[in-house]
Structures are given as structure tokens and as C-alpha cells.
Amino acid sequence: MTLHELKSVLRQHPDSAPRFILPDGDPIPAHFHITEVGHVAKRFIDCGGTLHDTKDTCLLQTYVADDVDHRLDAETFGRILDLGKAVLPGDNLDVEVEYDCCVTAQYPIREAHFAGEYLDFQLEAKHTDCLAKEKCGIESGCATSGCC
């Protein structure tokens, strides 16, 4: 989901309670805060020596505090996203949600749907991969070159 799409859904349901649903079906606790709106650009070299640039993203950091009475509504969520204009190059960025439960992980938002009082955002899992399989010998089942 892009930032533009996210803002549009929030505007359509300003009084709803946003809820992030993790890939396993569990929600992030309802008293989460959005503590950061960030622009992430990643440039890296893989184990085979190839340079890569990933698509820039908007990263929303969630934080679950002790104030269990805190509830973020869609209108306030939208205002927080508007603060991101200072660091984001535009609204066409894909959005990912960062959540810390035992480990910190980032989840792209796959879709949104309105469910009663809730505006549910389904998160999807991200996975690592070797980008130089042919150089590492992974396609044949063994990594003999030692690059990975």
C-alpha cells in the first residue's frame, strides 16, 4: 500500500480505530503509538559483488507503551502522516510498519478494510533471500564458493 492510499483510507474513515494485523493474524496491541514517520532508502552490495538499490519506502515505527488507555483514531493518524512531509519525497512510497515484539521487524501493508469500528491494515511478512545464488552455488544445493 502506498502512502497516498493509506492517507486516502484514513480520510474516508476519520473516526475509526486503526488496527494493524500481523501476518499470523494477531493484532498489534490497540494502545500502540506511531512514534516515527521515516523515509528509508537502501543501497547495498550482495555477497556476489553486485550493487543494488531498493525502492524507497515510508517506515512507520509503532511503539506499545504502558498507557493502555491510549487509542489512536484515523484522523490523528493522518495528521501524524502529514508531519512526514518534512522527510518524505512524496506520497507514492510503499508503507511498512515497524513493530517490536521480542525482535524488531518491518511489515509491508498489504491491504486495508473497514470492519465495524476498526480500520484493519493487514501486514505481510518480509523474507530474506540470496541475490547471488548462481555465484554462491545455492541453486545446486551447496554453497562451495564461500561467498555466503
Shape: globular
Number of domains: 1
For the biggest β-sheet, the strand order reads: 1-8-7-6-5-2
* Main beta sheet strand tally, sense and closure: 6 strands, mixed
- Class based on secondary structure composition and strand pairing: alpha/beta
Strand fraction band? Answer: 35-45%
The oligomeric status of these chains comes to: single chain
SSE order, one letter for each helix or strand: HEEEEEHEEEH
**Helix fraction?**
10-25%
Uncertain stretches: none
Count of DSSP E strands? 8
Number of helices: 3
Rg (C-alpha, Å): 18 Å
**Mean residue pLDDT:** 92
Distance between the termini: 32 Å
Outline the structure in words.
The mean pLDDT is 92. Helix 1 packs antiparallel against helix 2. The protein has three helices and eight strands, in the order H-E-E-E-E-E-H-E-E-E-H. It has a six-stranded mixed β-sheet with strand order 1-8-7-6-5-2. The chain is globular, with a radius of gyration of 18 Å. The protein has one domain.
